[in-house]
C-alpha cells in the first residue's frame, strides 16, 4: 500500500506541475530499475528558436568545460571551489585512459576497463556540476556563448541545438588526426584516438584472419590481407606494432595455424629513426628488437597515397622513388590536427594562421577574456626575455641611475627565472647554479660595488631564449595543465587580494599566479615480449623486463578510479593465464 501511495503522490505532482516530469529518470539495470528525482529547473529561454541554458545560481560564476579528455577531466577532478557552477559539454560521457588504447586493439585490456563515466567522477564533489552530451559547434567569445548540438541520435523535436552562456570558458577538446592532405588516408586508414577506434581495429584484425582462412581466397590475396601496415614511428605506432606482433605470435597462430606463415607487419616512418623523442639508446634498442621479431621497419618512407588495397610510399633515401605496397589493414598514427570549430574560433581571435590555439603562460587564450585552452588543442606562446629586456631593466633600476647594482638585480633574479622558464633551462644546459653565474660572464658580480648597464645586461641574457621549446602533445602535459588551472580557480579570490606570481615587468604589481611550469616525469615505450623502454627524469634509461613491471605499476596507479584499477589488473592477469580474447564482438 505504501508503494501505491507513493506513486499516487508522484502522479498527482506531475499533473499539478507538468514541468517536473522532465526531471523523472527511470534507469533499468539488468532487469531491475530505480527512480531518480531532481528538483525541476525553469524552462530555457529561446533566442532565435535555440534554447539558452542560463546558470542556476546568479551568485555563482559559471565555468564551461569543453571536453572530457585528460586536460578537462584533470581540471574537473581538482576543482574544489564551491563558488563556481560548472557545465561540462562533450560528445562522450566518459573519460578514457588513452595510453592503453593500443592494448585494447589486441584484447590485452578490455575497453570497459579504461573508461570511467564523467558522472561517476563528479557525483561526490562539493561543486555544482552539470553534464551535457553534445558537440560544440561554435564559440562566440564576444557574447560569451557556446553553440552546441546534441550528440544523441534521438527525436528531440527540433531541440538538438542549444546555447550555453559562460563566465569562464575552458577549451580542452584535444585534437583531430592530421593526414597532411594525403590522398586516401581518411577513407582507407584506421586511427587510434578514441576507444571506438581501438574496438574497430580489433574487429578488423580478426576479420583479416577470418578472410584469409576462407577456402576461396588465393594465396596472393591471403598475403595481402594479412599484411598489417603501421604509418608513424612515434610511441603510438611503435606500441601498436609491438602489441599486434605479440597478439599474432602468442594467440592467433594457435587459432589460425594455416595462415600463420603469411602474416607480415610493416612499420613506416618518414624520418631516419623511430621514437625520435626518446634517448638514442632506446631508439637503437627498439629498432634492433623489431628486426629480431620480424617486424619490417622502413625508415625514410613517406606515404604519399593510400587506396583500398595499396599504399604508395616515397623513398627518401633512394632519390624519391615511389614504391607500391599491398596491405590488408593500415593504421595512421602520425600528426595531430585542429578541430573545425577551433579553427573558426582562432580566426575570430586573430590566430587564423596558427596550427593550435595560442595561450600565454597562464593558459589564457591570447586575444580573449576569461577563455582558457589546455591540452592538445593549445600551445603556450612563451614570451622571449629579449622582448622584455628593456622593461625588466627599468623595473630593476629603482633609482633610475641607468645601471643595476648588485642589490637591484638580486631582487629581480627570482622573478625573472619564474616568469621566463627558458632562463632556468639555459642555466641547466650550461651547468650554472643560478643567474648570478650567468651574469659573471659579463661582469664580476661577486663584489657589491659592480654595476651593470643595459647593454651588459642584454649581453648576459642574449642567449637564454635559445632554450625555448614547445611542449609535446601528450597526456602528461594535458593532465598537469588541468591540475594547474584548477588550483588557480581554487585560489582565485585569495590571489586577487594577495598576488603570488612574479613581478609585472610591463605593468604594476604582481601577477595573480605563478605561470604554468611543466614537470617531465618520464615516458614509456612498450616494445612487446614483456619488454618496455623507460626514460625517466635525470636522463635515466631502463630497458627490459624490469621496466615492463614499472610500466604496469604506473599505468595501474594512474587510473582515475579503483574500479578501473581493478579491471585493468584483472585484464592483465587474464591475459597471462588464458591469453587474449580473439572473438569478434
Automatic annotation (TrEMBL):
GO cellular component: mitochondrial inner membrane; peroxisome
Domain called EF-hand: residue spans: 384-419
Places the protein is found: Mitochondrion inner membrane; Peroxisome
GO terms of molecular function: calcium ion binding; NADH dehydrogenase (quinone) (non-electrogenic) activity
Topology of the protein relative to the lipid bilayer: Peripheral membrane protein
Reactions this protein catalyses: a quinone + NADH + H(+) = a quinol + NAD(+); a ubiquinone + NADH + H(+) = a ubiquinol + NAD(+)
Cofactor: FAD
Keyword NAD among record annotations: yes
Record keywords, A-Z: Calcium, FAD, Flavoprotein, Membrane, Metal-binding, Mitochondrion, Mitochondrion inner membrane, NAD, NADP, Oxidoreductase, Peroxisome, Transit peptide, Ubiquinone
Protein's name in the database: NADH:ubiquinone reductase (non-electrogenic)
Amino acid at each position: 500500500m505504501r508503494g501505491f501511495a507513493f506513486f499516487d503522490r508522484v502522479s498527482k505532482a506531475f499533473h499539478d506541475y507538468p514541468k517536473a516530469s522532465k526531471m523523472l529518470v527511470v534507469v533499468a539495470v539488468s532487469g531491475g530499475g530505480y527512480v531518480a528525482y531532481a528538483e525541476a529547473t525553469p524552462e530555457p529561454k529561446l533566442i532565435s528558436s535555440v534554447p539558452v541554458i542560463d546558470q542556476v545560481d546568479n551568485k555563482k560564476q559559471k565555468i564551461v568545460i569543453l571536453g572530457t579528455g585528460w586536460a578537462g577531466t584533470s581540471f574537473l577532478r581538482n576543482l574544489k571551489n564551491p563558488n563556481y557552477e560548472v557545465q561540462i559539454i562533450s560528445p562522450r560521457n566518459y573519460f578514457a585512459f588513452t595510453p592503453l588504447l593500443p592494448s585494447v586493439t589486441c584484447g590485452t585490456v578490455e575497453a570497459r576497463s579504461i573508461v570511467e563515466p564523467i558522472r561517476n567522477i563528479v557525483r561526490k564533489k562539493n561543486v555544482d556540476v552539470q553534464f551535457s552530451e553534445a558537440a560544440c559547434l561554435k564559440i562566440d567569445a564576444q557574447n560569451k556563448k557556446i553553440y552546441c548540438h546534441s550528440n544523441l541520435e534521438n527525436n528531440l523535436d527540433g531541440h538538438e541545438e542549444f546555447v550555453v552562456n559562460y563566465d569562464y570558458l575552458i577549451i580542452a577538446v584535444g585534437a583531430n588526426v592530421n593526414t597532411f592532405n594525403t590522398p586516401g588516408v581518411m577513407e582507407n586508414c584506421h586511427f587510434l584516438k578514441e576507444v571506438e577506434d581501438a574496438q574497430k581495429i580489433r574487429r578488423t584484425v580478426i576479420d583479416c584472419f577470418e578472410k584469409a582462412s576462407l577456402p576461396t581466397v588465393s594465396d596472393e590475396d591471403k598475403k595481402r590481407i594479412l599484411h598489417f601496415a603501421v604509418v608513424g614511428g612515434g610511441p603510438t605506432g611503435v606500441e601498436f606494432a609491438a602489441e599486434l606482433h605479440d597478439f599474432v605470435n602468442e594467440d592467433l597462430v594457435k587459432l589460425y595455424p594455416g595462415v600463420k606463415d603469411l602474416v607480415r607487419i610493416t612499420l613506416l616512418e618518414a624520418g631516419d629513426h623511430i621514437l625520435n623523442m626518446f634517448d638514442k639508446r632506446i631508439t637503437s634498442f627498439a629498432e634492433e628488437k623489431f628486426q629480431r621479431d620480424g617486424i619490417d621497419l622502413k625508415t625514410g618512407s613517406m606515404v604519399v597515397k593510400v587506396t583500398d588495397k595499396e599504399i604508395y610510399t616515397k623513398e627518401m633515401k633512394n632519390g624519391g622513388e615511389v614504391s607500391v605496397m599491398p596491405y590488408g589493414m593500415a593504421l595512421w598514427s602520425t600528426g595531430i590536427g585542429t578541430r573545425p570549430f577551433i579553427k573558426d574560433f582562432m580566426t575570430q581571435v586573430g590566430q587564423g594562421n596558427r596550427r593550435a590555439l595560442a595561450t600565454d603562460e597562464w593558459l589564457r587564450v591570447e586575444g580573449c577574456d576569461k577563455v582558457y585552452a589546455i591540452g592538445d588543442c593549445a600551445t603556450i606562446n612563451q614570451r622571449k626575455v629579449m622582448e622584455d629586456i628593456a622593461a625588466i631593466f627599468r623595473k630593476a633600476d629603482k633609482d633610475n641611475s641607468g645601471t643595476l647594482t648588485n642589490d637591484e638585480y638580486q631582487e629581480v633574479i627570482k622573478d625573472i627565472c619564474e616568469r621566463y622558464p627558458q632562463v632556468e633551462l639555459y642555466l641547466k644546459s650550461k651547468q650554472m647554479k643560478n643567474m648570478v653565474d650567468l651574469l659573471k660572464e659579463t661582469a664580476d658580480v661577486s663584489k657589491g660595488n659592480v654595476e651593470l648597464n643595459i647593454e651588459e645586461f642584454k649581453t648576459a641574457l642574449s642567449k637564454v631564449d635559445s632554450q625555448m621549446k614547445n611542449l609535446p602533445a601528450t597526456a602528461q602535459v594535458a593532465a598537469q595543465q588541468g591540475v594547474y588551472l584548477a588550483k588557480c580557480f581554487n585560489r582565485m579570490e585569495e590571489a586577487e587580494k594577495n598576488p603570488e606570481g612574479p613581478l609585472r615587468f610591463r605593468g604594476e604589481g604582481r601577477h595573480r599566479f605563478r605561470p604554468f611550469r611543466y614537470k617531465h616525469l618520464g615516458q614509456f615505450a612498450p616494445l612487446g615480449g614483456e619488454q618496455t623502454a623507460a626514460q625517466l627524469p635525470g636522463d635515466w634509461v631502463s630497458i627490459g623486463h624490469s621496466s615492463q613491471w614499472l610500466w604496469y605499476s604506473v599505468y595501474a596507479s594512474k587510473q582515475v578510479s579503483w574500479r578501473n584499477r581493478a579491471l585493468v589488473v584483472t585484464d592483465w592477469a587474464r591475459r597471462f593465464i588464458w591469453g587474449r580474447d580473439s572473438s569478434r564482438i
